[in-house]
């Protein structure tokens, strides 16, 4: 969740046009899709945390264009952007805009793996995969891709309403591709990177890295309160897909040859943020802390949080909630009405059950508890609004089953508090530190430096693509995740 009034960068990385001859044979993308991609680009970047516009962003653009020129698509119509998102993913839109998150980059171990991911996404564009999927759902505009909430969102019952509101970008699941399309994009990406001079075997090591990270994340979530947003599931990874990619790479006859450029890549990811960016708040156990907004709250035991750019969503067995902020004009009732309008679209009647004002940890609060009839039964809708300062207010919007009121969220609404300057200053990001192994270093000793409270060895092995019995060699470069400085 970004700081209210903070304007994140919405500019794509600048690109240098590729000189094309009249007989180049490159295929132009549809002007319609190009226009739509251009129009939605700023919103996509803002939704997913901003863009890397410095050396790292330029590096990704450079590798993307080196691969993209092999696709047959006019390279001047391809754009590659690195997003400041804590979710491992990459995706493309039909107009030639390809996005990759810095979290996914942190998982990679060389430039060839980066080239494969960008090539895979370019393959989706070149093969018109997204158009086919969007035509099937009749959702091929910015409204469809970024997911303006349609109709009476509460009308479908509790479902995943709060999740939709908290991550409107989750509508990027419309870009989910079929298994056949994923295989096709893998095939194309392998061909692109081979022709660009990279080792096609990078496709296999990259997919294996994703598999390791997915398996580890499943274990970590058993002891964590962080949930994975739906938009992160655009690329289902299966053992079959890894095996198919391995077969396709071997068929090139070039596995083990070509560039990997490990050192150049590690130089670029040195210092990259891992997990939450403190500028958007961080999740620590059951507590969400935002050092810039100077606030904190704690969710009930057993509930999961998802930290989006504009909101934090909370879900558990007894209900869902969303924490958001916005401009405050002095009337908390107006602020509450706006939250309810966003939730219902103005198309669902809410019967007032309770309305009052109070204080929580010295903060003025007004709340409304209402009840609505939905297709799934009666639902209680509650909004607790906090007058944080003269310009900003924050609110929990909660959905529970009819008759429960705020239910299990009672402790959460009472936990919101201001944090001190000292607490805010103590929140530091996790960053990748590229370390050169020295004599005497072991997996266990280096894993002990990982900035996590659990699964340190497993995280170190997964991050570096190492086997459990790996022995480190002096001079070898590895990635650590350590606490860094705020930016």
TrEMBL record:
One GO MF term attached to the UniProt entry: metallopeptidase activity
Record key words, sorted: Hydrolase, Metal-binding, Metalloprotease, Protease, Signal, Zinc
InterPro entries, A to Z: LysM, LysM_dom_sf, Mito/Outer_Membr_Metalloprot, Peptidase_M48
Signal peptide coordinates: 1-21
LysM domain boundaries: 433-480
Needed co-factor(s): Zn(2+)
Descriptive protein name: M48 family metalloprotease
């Amino acid at each position: 969740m970004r700081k209210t009034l903070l304007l994140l960068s919405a500019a794509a990385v600048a690109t240098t046009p590729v000189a094309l001859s009249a007989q180049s044979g490159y295929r132009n993308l549809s002007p319609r899709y190009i226009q739509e991609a251009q129009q939605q680009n700023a919103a996509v970047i803002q939704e997913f945390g901003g863009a890397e516009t410095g050396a790292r962003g330029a590096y990704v653009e450079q590798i993307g264009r080196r691969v993209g020129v092999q696709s047959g698509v006019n390279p001047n119509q391809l754009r590659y952007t690195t997003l400041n998102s804590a979710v491992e993913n990459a995706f493309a839109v039909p107009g030639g805009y390809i996005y990759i998150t810095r979290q996914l980059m942190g998982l990679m171990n060389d430039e060839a793996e980066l080239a494969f991911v960008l090539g895979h996404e370019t393959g989706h564009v070149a093969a018109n995969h997204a158009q086919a999927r969007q035509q099937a759902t009749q959702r091929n505009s910015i409204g469809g891709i970024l997911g303006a909430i349609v109709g009476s969102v509460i009308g479908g019952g509790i479902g995943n309403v709060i999740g939709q509101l908290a991550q409107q970008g989750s509508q990027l699941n419309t870009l989910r591709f079929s298994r056949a399309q994923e295989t096709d994009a893998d095939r194309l990406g392998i061909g692109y990177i081979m022709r660009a001079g990279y080792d096609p075997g990078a496709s296999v090591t990259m997919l294996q890295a994703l598999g390791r990270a997915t398996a580890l994340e499943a274990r970590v979530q058993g002891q964590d309160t962080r949930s994975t947003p739906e938009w992160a599931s655009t690329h289902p990874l299966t053992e079959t897909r890894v095996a198919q990619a391995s077969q396709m790479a071997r068929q090139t006859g070039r596995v083990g040859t070509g560039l990997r450029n490990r050192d150049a890549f590690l130089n670029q990811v040195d210092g990259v943020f891992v997990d939450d960016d403190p500028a958007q708040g961080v999740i620590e156990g059951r507590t969400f802390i935002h050092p810039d907004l100077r606030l904190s709250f704690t969710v009930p035991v057993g509930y999961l949080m998802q930290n989006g750019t504009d909101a934090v969503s909370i879900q558990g067995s007894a209900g869902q909630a969303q924490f958001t902020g916005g401009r405050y004009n002095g009337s908390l009732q107006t602020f509450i009405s706006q939250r309810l309008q966003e939730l219902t679209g103005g198309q669902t009647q809410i019967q007032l059950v309770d309305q009052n004002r109070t204080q929580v940890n010295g903060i003025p609060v007004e709340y409304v508890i209402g009840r609505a009839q939905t297709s799934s039964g009666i639902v209680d809708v509650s909004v607790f609004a906090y007058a944080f300062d003269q310009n900003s207010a924050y609110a929990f919007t909660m959905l529970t089953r009819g008759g429960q009121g705020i239910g299990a969220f009672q402790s959460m609404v009472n936990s919101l508090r201001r944090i001190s300057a000292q607490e805010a200053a103590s929140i530091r990001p996790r960053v990748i530190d590229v370390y050169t192994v020295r004599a005497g270093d072991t997996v266990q000793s280096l894993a002990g430096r990982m900035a996590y409270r659990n699964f340190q060895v497993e995280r170190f092995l997964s991050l570096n693509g190492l086997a459990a019995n790996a022995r480190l060699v002096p001079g070898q470069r590895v990635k650590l995740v350590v606490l860094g400085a705020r930016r």
